[in-house]
Amino acid sequence: MPSYNPADVERRWQQFWETNKTFRTPDPGDPGTAGKPKYYVLDMFPYPSGAGLHVGHPEGYTATDILARFKRMRGFHVLHPMGWDAYGLPAEQYAVKTNTHPRITTQQNITTFRRQIKALGFSYDWDREVDTTDPGYFKWTQWIFLTIYDTWYDPVAGKGRPISELPIPDDVRGQGEDAVRRYRDAHRLAYQAEVPVNWCPEMGTVLANEEVIDGRSEVGGFPVERRPLRQWLMRITAYADRLLDDLDPLDWPESIKLMQRNWIGKSEGAEVHFPVAHETEDHTVSHTITVFTTRPDTLYGATYMVLSPEHPLVDRITTAEHRDAVRAYQAAAARKSDFERTEVAKTKTGVFTGAYAVNPMNEARIPIWTADYVLASYGTGAIMAVPGHDERDYAFAHEYGLPIETVVRPAGDGPWDPDARPGPFCDDGVSVNSGPLSGLPTADARREITVLLESRGLGHRRVNYKLRDWLFSRQRYWGEPFPVLHGPGGEVVPLPPAELPLVPPDLEDFKPTGTPEGPLSKATDWVNTTRGGQPYRRETNTMPQWAGSCWYFLRYIDPRNDAAFADPAKLRHWLPVDLYVGGAEHAVLHLLYARFWHKVLFDRGYLPCPEPFQRLVNQGMILGETELTAYQKDGKWVSAGEVKEADKELASEGQSALRAVRVSEEQVEKKGQAFVLKEDPAVRVEARAHKMSKSRGNVVNPDDIITEYGADSLRLYEMFMGPLEAVKPWSTKSVEGVYRFLGRAWRLIVDDGEELKPHPAMTDAVPDRDTLRVLHKTIRKVGEDTDHLRFNTAIAAMMEFVNHVTKLEARPRAVLEPFVLLLAPYAPHAAEELWRALGHRDTLAYEPWPAFDPALARDDEIEVPVQVNGKLKARLKVPAEIDDQALEAAALADEAVMAAVGGKPVKMVKVVPRKLVNVVVAG
RNA sequence: GGCCAAGUGGCGGAAUGGCAGACGCACUCGACUCAAAAUCGAGCGCCCCAAAGGCGUGUGGGUUCGAGUCCCACCUUGGCCACCA
């Protein structure tokens, strides 16, 4: 074996691991598991796209692999699996274009992904690989759907229970079986309802709220419109409180917890009933407008009301003379896309209905308007407007000249002129002009008014959530079919578990129908079926992509079980996941849905714990290499600071008078904080790393890096770039740095000859004290840093070790063997080969982690800095065990220190034991 | 607009309130070589010819014997949410 040749080494060890099933994970109770603590380390499994692996994938996968290998060496029973989230739109769109069955492209993509992932040498147990499109897998996705369908949420018990245990009220029972069925259906956690949904005409499907961003589809960016359609929904709102409360103890990034909390959007307040004044034409009917408010204490300041244009009362209360204007406004609002409706900074619009409501507390007559700044989908779709204490109401009142009243003033006794202030006062304070509330602090006023409203039947306490029920059906081909039938009377009949999996029909044409009927409706033979001689139809919608990813981590635990989604004893052993690593883009989608399913399955007794992922870490995105960009307009340079962001985008696409010019490092110099052009130092140049994208041409393909430097170098580099969570730019030059490090480590141990054998400088002699100290400090540092996912500093410590040993004449085997074990989780192929060169026959994957000896790591002599008035003046070499008095004496005796003190009186001497001395002198 | 992060050499980054810049890249010099590459060694924050010295962690203030680290305000960048009553 000559010099370090990663391609050779890596191929050989990947083969070794595969043929020996080195990383096969024994089931709990199998030989070798006794007494071992478990550790479940999970990656977010990839969608196998046609583009192949991206350098972002190995980032998280390497981090988890290092931990999996580390934990094995520390004696843990480790579960570390991989699989494919293989349902998805790209495969279906490709199928539509080329008329290839999505199953074929999906399998091709999986093959590519598997090859690429295996080339990185991850220690997955490939016997546990799962594929969400495999009937053996989605059988259980469908089974879980049926379980959720079979569940209702019992608010008293605070948990999901079998639908058979749902109490049926007598009056419902009295109306017959159909009524009982409808009653049950209305309580199921999976239910059908006609709701305004996000319909995306371009994609021919509906989308979940979570999949719509600024009124456009998250995938593809197509416009989305609101349409009332009958769809399947999941009652995730029933679990809102538990999803919120159970976040607290989780070891997750605070930012992700916050995003979930905001998404759930719990607000506490009150519902208040406002009677409509009887001045409409229809004097015989009395109407009540119910509003939700988080500030019931401002009730006396309500000067008008607003109904959303879709509110059913708008038509009923509008007076004849305002009817045309209101109708026109409603029509205009309906035409607007969500994007237009929620556009910021636009002025608010609305029209008066002609009707008045009565403030239930002070009998004030206030006008009722309709305006699209009030959303039909939140609260009751109606508000009481308090322009004195709400930004939006203030803006609207200002626009339409509606009265503004002050009913809260800032706390404290200071002077207070409500007319002097520029806008509404929205903070908590003290109630004024509010009848019985006057003088009460906001918190008390809130409580007081709620009690008053409840006692008079005018309203009640109320908790509201932004979270909506989860729209669960899609009009697509490439997804799990719903395992239900629709009977002749429109009733839903779940398939018996024995009939699962329900495999989708083979289709010639995968195109969306363009209507809410899914593509499956084209397979009439499949759709139409009979039961007991009666005609039944299969559901033609399919499940969203999230379905398969909601529970894949459960299937890894028992992937080939045909009798259950997983064996309960195995679930008890492995759950919860100890570490879950993936991108932050799943903060509210996958991570919220998976938690919801988990809780339902927990409630129904199928899972041992209420939360799936104990610890979550987001790896930061890897950007392309930093680019220097100068801007030109009409042939003249423009400073980067003067260019607007929007123009930059256009310029980089070549669609503007502005031109973006890539410049080289030689053309620029640093001036203060900024880079400027050498030829014209007045021109600032932009230095920025961008997201990798095909159009920008800055995508790095992991295959190329592996060919050039090997998988170990790629792994090591991605971990050395910086903290795992940080966003960081790629630099191929820096890959060479870690490649060189591996080469140095290699040459330290391996003889430069034909055969693989130890370097002639290798010695069995006892290492010197200093070298032992370096080793043990490295063992401590690498162990602690690996445990805390601080891989960059762990690698730096290993580099320092190699730098130290390189300087030695003789290389003691006694420190090199432990070093190879430290390296093993990071660069496993090279480490295995070095382990063999050191004379070992078997894999090092289960070798015990080197033991740390604090006595050997201890310094004999330390260097202590001495400051005078906080400024460094000297460094003292002193024995490590020096006490404070001796250290202080040594400091004060030092020449440089005495010179700095200059005979002035010493006010105090601060001694930090063994760390530092600070001499404080006057003046 | 709101909320949350983060601003440290030419670059990526390191630093339980205690020697700022570990480790690596780039660069410079030296050794080896006919030469180059590879490798090995040395240097490398800024000012100053150099030394002595001074200045240095986005800006301004504060707390502290001592601040990159804690607090306040501002600036910049990134992320998330975006009329949720």
What tags apply to this protein structure?
923 residues; alpha+beta; four-stranded parallel beta sheet; 30 helices; 33% helix; 20% strand; RNA-binding
Question: Describe it for me?
Answer:
The protein is an alpha+beta fold. Helices cover 33% and strands 20% of the residues. The chain contains 30 helices and 41 strands. The strands form 13 sheets. Strands 29, 30, 31, 32, 33 and 34 form a six-stranded antiparallel sheet that branches. α23 packs across α25 and α26 runs antiparallel to α27. The two termini are 69 Å apart. The mean pLDDT is 89. The protein binds one RNA strand of 85 nucleotides through α9, β13, β17, α13 and β35.
Give a quick rundown of the structure.
With 923 residues, this protein is an alpha+beta fold.
